[in-house]
Design a protein that fits this description.
The chain has 403 residues and is α+β, with helices and mostly antiparallel strands. It contains 10 helices and 23 strands. The chain starts with a helix and ends in a 21-residue tail after the last strand. Bound molecules: guanosine-5'-diphosphate.
Length: 403
Amino acid sequence: MRAHLSSALATVRNLGILAHVDAGKTTVTERMLYITGATYKRGEVHDGTTVTDFDPQERDRGITIFAAAVSCTWDGHRINLIDTPGHVDFSDEVERSLRVLDGAIAVFDGVAGVEPQSESVWRRADRYGVPRIAFINKLDRPGADLDAAVESIRERLHPAPLVVQLPIGREDGFTGVVDLIAMRALVWSGDAYETGPVPGDLVEEATRRRRLLEEAVAELHAGALEEFCAQPSLSQETLTAALRDLTRTGAGVVVLCGSAYRNRGIEPLLDAVVRYLPSPLDVPAVRGQEGEERPADPEAPLAALVFKVTSAASGRLTYLRVYSGTLRKGDTVLDAGTGKTERVGRILRVQADRHADTDVAVAGDIVAVVGPKAARAGTTLCAQDAPLLLEPPAATEPVVSVA
Ligand code: GDP
């Protein structure tokens, strides 16, 4: 049972999307939900039908103000998307959602590159040690330039951007990418998608960029360096494993590119989430305020952190992350801060605009519950017989040792 639950945890990704307002966070989220089948209508920001923005005020303003968590499934993995507000006025909410993420996609505008807000959100994510991959969006726009955007990342955010794709075509003629790891082309039009050999006119450039990627990875990763010196090149397997390590330690940042306007263009991004970003098992155990560790183990005593409370038509929804133990429908749990108890009447998985009831939530899960009356963002809910007040996850500790 335990092994089974633990291996299920390996297929969970708790993920946030960090971006400057207007970089395309809402559109990227929409496309992810659409492609993964969590929602069948195609939300458009401009007509107010997006599904992550529940609040009418948000729809009116066209910006994501309040965080919500949405679950979807991709390639056998459950992806819990925790929405993080991009607007600078809502930085407390950003901070709270950063506490419950295991990884993030940082979205940049392919024309503007790194903007001031992207920089401040990035620094905050650094503080919480959130592993990230970067997505340069809007490559279809006039003036979009992947290389310039990557340079702005290198100069302002991170010295080691690791670009794993080469765009095919520019601006209006942007039709797909060359995957520099598998060395194959992904070309989309509307909802159709084709994979094939690297187009003849791009072979030389793709080969050159693959080489640059291998060199950059070998410079940062001891295992890759060993293979690179012996061969001298890197296999697809070594490259992928090294990129995963570098993402998790924060030593490098995998960079993908695309356009959220091209639906299928989001698929390689979903693949990258599964491949590179950590599961709840890969991140450090949380600690209580007295330093005691709680492992991401469904059989340990319950400890969960509330990161958001909303009022919906169905009542008060308390969004929480379970860090350890198992939360069951009907449980009475302890608010570790006040010493009072709360009853969990229902457990819901929020799927875009629908709520699915579930009986249990285990360590690593992000769910909404109905029942608690006084819990607020920041409240720890825990087992009555094992009180524990959660501390924010430790910030800058490396997750995996690379060297
Ligand atoms: P957010 O503020 O980061 O959530 O950004 P939105 O998703 O609301 O997008 C901001 C604007 O950029 C909207 O008008 C979108 O329609 C537009 N947009 C988003 N993705 C793309 C893209 O890939 N290409 C182009 N040309 N526009 C995009």
